[in-house]
Amino acid sequence: xxxxxxxxxxxxxxxxxxxxxxxxxxxxxxxxxxxxxxxxxxxxxxxxxxxxxxxxxxxxxxxxxxxxxxxxxxxxxxxxxxxxxxxxxxxxxxxxxxxxxxxxxxxxxxxxxxxxxxxxxxxxxxxxxxxxxxxxxxxxxxxxxxxxxxxxxxxxxxxxxxxxxxxxxxxxxxxxxxxxxxxxxxxxxxxxxxxxxxxxxxxxxxxxxxxxxxxxxxxxxxxxxxxxxxxxxxxxxxxxxxxxxxxxxxxxxxxxxxxxxxxxxxxxxxxxxxxxxxxxxxxxxxxxxxxxxxxxxxxxxxxxxxxxxxxxxxxxxxxxxxxxxxxxxxxxxxxxxxxxxxxxxxxxxxxxxxxxxxxxxxxxxxxxxxxxxxxxxxxxxxxxxxxxxxxx
Length: 392
Ligand SMILES: Cc1ncc(COP(=O)(O)O)c(C=O)c1O
Fold this sequence. Notes:
Layout: H1 13-19, H2 46-50, H3 63-76, E1 80-84, H4 87-98, E2 104-108, H5 113-125, E3 129-133, E4 149-155, H6 167-176, E5 180-184, E6 202-206, E7 220-224, H7 227-240, H8 246-257, H9 259-278, E8 283-287, H10 297-303, E9 310-315, H11 320-328, E10 345-348, E11 366-370, H12 376-391
Parallel strand pairs: 2-3, 2-4, 4-5, 5-6
Antiparallel strand pairs: 1-7, 6-7, 8-9, 9-11, 10-11
The structure holds pyridoxal-5'-phosphate (PLP).
């Protein structure tokens, strides 16, 4: 029987991922935590029902959800994590934890589309003002912060257009004015960018992507840098009646064990494919922050320790029918909206773009690629064949 390992901070990522959330002595020697499918927790004493800091209802989360939260903190740091039923649910939970009627939130113009929809509909309906800012604003955010500003919501690199924000400068400006900061840190999987080391208060993860890694369940998490922030998100989670399904938490925890290996492979393969795309005459620009040609490469290099496998490419102008022929004929790349799984995906995404603070200008169609676990040489050959259909 092994013993529980609690302080994992001295270990490297791969080791932390292998050890996090394990406590065999508590579970008959089982290497991983059990999956409790329960609503009800029965308690022996009357005083247990109300007066003790113990679990009293399954919705609060059992061993597997706790182990997952512990593992997420072991990856990204912070005081604690709260799970959500999806990545989008984690974005909205984070916003609801800090927003106030009569106050406003500043949101990056490059935010994930459904987060933007939530801000423009439900948040506004409940009296929260929303203003979008240019993702390249950096310390200039100070000028937008007013007496009513409650939070800044960042996402870096941004959805679809991959601008890297000067998140430390934004966090500094917000902190100086007592404004909370949130970052959707899904692209880095909590591995390549450390929000809490840069003074950001909350990190959002769509665990559906790299943590799960197998495209077969939804989950999200909000991590907080400080205990008060963690308590605030936990309270909001309870008020909303959210929960995280035990079987899905188990799948995410299982995915985490191999995440470092997958992420490394996918990051390297994506960069190889990004270089290939840069060499093609059909391509106007490749939006991958690890490429020296990316406008935010210097910020990315300063703040990130690596790249994941999602990026975009702007093609030179091309007829719609030719683009459809290219995409529909691909053998390995499939068209689908998620990313971070084992399967490579590609989507045309101009129709999903909404920008109101920093207009998007492009030479031609925008495509997003998520690189999976296939061999990069096979993926490049698939794209090469696609480019020949684009030309004909
Ligand atoms: C940046 C980002 N955040 C959040 C989400 C939402 O995750 P989920 O699909 O689990 O709701 C996505 C989904 O694509 C995303 O790309």
